[in-house]
Design goal:
homodimer; mainly alpha; two-stranded antiparallel sheet; 9 helices; about 65% helix; about 5% strand
């Protein structure tokens, strides 16, 4: 465990806490006070750390993500769905009418998706929110944001391993949750850049 | 207050809570048990509701955003900075070395920004997070995400009112916090679309 701690720069006390919380599988016992940890432990520990510290997930949410990895899904499409399911924000089941706002937006964008998926429900909830605030997403904004999202997704999915479902889920979880803060920060910095450019004209 | 509640569909008890928490200014008293609320109250109430319910801000964070609106900044550039300052995620001051990761990324993108701003510190923290998780943003990913962020920012800033600083801050706050969940949801749905397209080949 001391070696695992050195390799990952995660304190031993933190590793023990993750073990207790079921976020990290136990090592293989080799002596009364020693256990062996392998490369899988190093990767899992980095992931858990990232989910909690960078992603800001609760322990319960991180446990659900880790469970989706351990469930060893049978195909990669299911893996991507499971990853999105496990990540926040938690989205309540769609209303009786179904995710009508999201489906209209997706049709306008010409995308082919599973209508009854967590991603679609998340989009529907986000669109309902801006509608309620009196700031509905117009045609132009949907087109611009949609094109930007598609460019990012092409890169995200292009790099996804398609051989092993477990590797694909790991990639999807990590890529989704870890890069989101980067994307939002880039947009804020870009706003500043565009604003300064306008001001200096 | 009953009329304000009807207009905004926010329950009277909730309005009273916002008044107590300093999120909404008091109405103009016109009788012992009556006060007058104007259009400004309706807009402010919609904003507060959006920040708390859609943006998921804490009451304290929403109060800081509202304060940045009431501070009536003297110019629009300062207004944009104040808006970003007030919004989560809260970012600790940069380390002694300064936000070196963010500044390197911004130079690679060719953007012109204020190096000592909240947006830059947010970007630096996000980049430090993915580095720590062993998933640094490479040149290609930075270029793709940066271009997507710039496209969105052009639209965001293009629609920003430049006449009144207060209107600009309002626009920046609302646009930043409200559209972020939409952008993240669109990316997840786009991933699914790209993935299905690849799978059907």
């Amino acid at each position: 465990m001391a070696e695992l701690s050195r390799t990952t720069s995660v304190p031993v006390a933190t590793i023990k806490y993750y073990l207790r919380e079921g976020l990290l599988p136990a090592g293989r016992p080799v002596a009364a006070t020693q256990a062996e940890y392998d490369d899988g432990h190093v990767q899992r520990l980095r992931l858990v750390r990232a989910l909690l510290v960078v992603g800001g997930l609760s322990v319960a949410a991180a446990r659900a993500v880790v469970a989706s990895l351990d469930a060893a899904p049978t195909d990669v499409a299911a893996a991507l769905g499971a990853a999105h399911d496990a990540l926040p924000p938690a989205v309540p089941p769609a209303e009786d009418a179904g995710p009508v706002r999201a489906l209209a937006a997706i049709e306008a964008l010409g995308w082919d998706v599973e209508p009854d998926s967590t991603g679609v429900r998340q989009l529907d909830a986000a669109l309902a929110g801006v509608d309620a605030a009196g700031l509905p997403i117009g045609t132009e904004r949907l087109a611009v944001y949609g094109a930007a999202a598609l460019d990012m997704a092409e890169l995200d999915v292009g790099g996804m391993p398609t051989t092993s479902p477990t590797a694909a889920v790991h990639h999807a979880v990590v890529g989704t949750v870890m890069y989101e803060p980067v994307i939002l920060a880039l947009r804020r910095v870009a706003q500043q850049h565009v604003f300064r450019r306008l001001g200096s004209r």
